[in-house]
Automatic annotation (TrEMBL):
It comes from the Eukaryota. GO terms for cellular component: cytoplasm. The gene is Sept5. This is SEPT5 protein. PROSITE patterns: G_SEPTIN (PS51719). The record marks F175 as: Important for dimerization.
Amino acid sequence: MDSIIIQERLVEKLLSPRTQAQRSHPGKLKDHEKQYVGFATLPNQVHRKSVKKGFDFTLMVAGESGLGKSTLVNSLFLTDLYKDRKLLNAEERINQTVEIVKHTVDIEEKGVKLKLTIVDTPGFGDAVNNTECWKPITDYIDQQFEQYFRDESGLNRKNIQDNRVHCCLYFISPFGHGLRPVDVEFMKALHEKVNIVPLIAKADCLIPSEIRKLKERIREEIDKFGIKVYQFPECDSDEDEEFKQQDRELKESAPFAVIGSNTVVEAKGQRVRGRLYPWGIVEVENQAHCDFVKLRNMLIRTHMHDLKDVTCDVHYENYRAQCIQQMTSKLTQDNRIESPIPILPLPTPDTETEKLIKMKDEEVR
Ligand code: GDP
């Protein structure tokens, strides 16, 4: 008898349409709350589950050595990801091949865990002959897609580790007059596989008018060569005006001109991350000095999820469709030669059935 009462109470509890607010203030249901079925709590359920599971994000950095890639990554995530990096001298760089190096850190902020993987590509663009130097990078991205495809088709789909590259920060030299041939080739080889975010490195080497000109030039060349860099999604019409303004500024600032620094200097009585020059200080986080804050906000605060979605829904889907197409065409080819599965002829209707179909046709007419 007791167990029946307990079970009834349990069912009642499970069916009760409590809102999140009521969970913390249990009591009688208000009249308007009686109307709720309870699915309004779904976002909270998803939120709790995601926070518990944690997040992961894989960021690739590419561009020739010395453009400040490691300094920028450290400035972005305030960690030292390159503790054991070996620097090569000029002679060693001549024959260096492109390597892929992965650094992973677990960072936590207000109880939210993020597993951040940085994929570095030392040696890219450094050799005298840079023909196809992007090949190891495209191969790496494809390998991650392949691994994911295999895991997805395997038995243990619950614990798949997602190592797909969600974004690639591509560093462009501030000393050129736009894109170099290797930049164009790199971006064209990768734009169908990964979200490319082009950056103008070491922006403190240029004056504001030079930055504007270089940005203009790069935008034109991106258009001219048909390069598809990451497109920021359209802002929702119901967003507030401040957010819309920020979104407009973000889109207008691309390609972001960035400055990195691992040192903290004193400016106007405040300690800031920046670079000290005889003529003054460039502050990394000052929006009048560079686009570092815009890049960080975009990457971490506003667009990280979209970058992951585009990777999954566009780039990975393309790879998957190609794979399936190749597998099917191979299967049909093999079938033609020596089919392990007998291909049965389609059944043709016998004369009785044909007569019946004709009769039915007449009836319908
Ligand atoms: P990486 O080889 O691309 O990873 O470049 P590093 O991060 O090792 O930086 C190479 C050199 O450039 C170091 O001496 C940095 O201090 C310097 N550096 C990094 N970022 C900047 C920047 O934004 N402006 C200037 N002027 N120098 C920078």
